[in-house]
Amino acid sequence: MAIRKISCRNRIFLAPDGKNQGTRKIPCKNRIFLAPDGKNQGTRKIPCKNRIFLAPMEEVNDVAFRLLCKKAGAGLTYTGMINPLMQKEIDLEDKPALQLFCTSEKGIKEFIEKYDNQVSMWDFNLGCPAKTAKKHGFGSFLIGDLDMIEKILRIMRESTEKPISVKIRKSNNTFKILEIAEKYCDAICIHPRTQAQGYGGNPDIEFAEKLKSKTKLPVIYSGDVDETNFKELLKKFDYVMIGRKAMGDPNIFARMLGKKSSITFKDYLTLAEKHHFYFRQIKFQAMCFTKGKENAKELRLEIFKIKDLKELKEFAKENL
Length: 320
Fold this sequence. Notes:
Distance between the termini: 101 Å
Number of strands: 8
Mean pLDDT: 91
CATH superfamily of the largest domain: Aldolase class I
Radius of gyration: 24 Å
Structural class: alpha/beta
CATH architecture of the largest domain: Alpha-Beta Barrel
Low-confidence stretches: none
Strand content: 5-15%
CATH class of the largest domain: Alpha Beta
Strand order of the largest sheet: 1-2-3-4-5-6-7-8
Helix content: 25-40%
CATH topology of the largest domain: TIM Barrel
């Protein structure tokens, strides 16, 4: 009996019902793949109401302050730096972008799994210039360890389908970090001051523009953003962050958006009591809320002397 050859172009056929049988399972840990060119496609949109964000600030950005900034119009709020090995429960009522700081990938996967449903996105801090960052090797003092930076961003990417940003400074390694970030991140936040500058001197906006020209990822600009320059900066960058200018003044977001807002320290007190803050944190924020008042220095001296919450509440009724 003659054997008739199958007439085909290759060895892959369509099933008789017209459907692919799909018997081969995709071998993957999650549903996020690296593109063939080695770069993340940045398909995860930044979840924000507008392009003006509250910048991550240590100590300042407690949940009460973040909620007030969000109420005033902040498009997205960031937490301060949080270590993934921290055991204390975190209040994320405002569903913020949660900023991580660390020197290894230890605990990241478990931490993200724990809080992923409570945040809008994740951020990795490579910008902190503080003495504690230098002592422990995190923030801007980790920028020399490109291998570890990649390990951390990779495990973050493998642990969540939500957007990831990385906050960096001007340095000799900025563009090397950018290449790594493009594999795993959905946005870059640039504060164009050097580690040595800290928060002094002038930010190098031209450097930030150069970074913007080198990447297709959205760029969030940070560094002396205020009511006088934010419109021009938004012509150059995708988003801006308000940091120190927002301290004690959540209403800055409303003013930038052309809206009215009259948030005061009394509003902060209400939320602080609801969330059971320590007195020292409430007292710190009271100091911040003196900003812009004619007698701010005298008010801060009076607040410094206050010993308990009851006394502070009485003082706030007349002065804050």
